[in-house]
Design a protein that fits this description.
This protein is α+β, with helices and mostly antiparallel strands. It contains two helices and three strands, in the order ααβββ. It has a domain of about 35 residues: Complement Module, domain 1 (Ribbon). A three-stranded antiparallel beta sheet has the order 1-2-3, with no helix packed on it.
Length: about 70
């Protein structure tokens, strides 16, 4: 049976993100979500003068909105 990839509530196809190679993972900075959220469910991130909201959902997923 040929199954099609499922889309999430935002229309993004699940399970299609390419896996990072070991070299890419080792060279990129890494932060724990707990370090960013610091006990809050939402934080604001300023990037080039624009504010973004990083939110943790009830299901534990992270959403970044402009």
């Amino acid at each position: 049976m040929n199954e099609r990839p499922r889309s999430d509530a935002h229309g993004e196809v699940q399970g299609t993100a390419p896996a990072a190679t070991a070299t890419e993972s080792a060279s990129l900075p890494r932060w724990l979500s707990e370090q960013l959220l610091q006990g809050h469910r939402e934080v604001l991130i300023e990037h080039e003068g624009t504010l973004y909201r990083l939110r943790q959902t009830r299901n534990g997923k992270l959403i970044l909105n402009k």
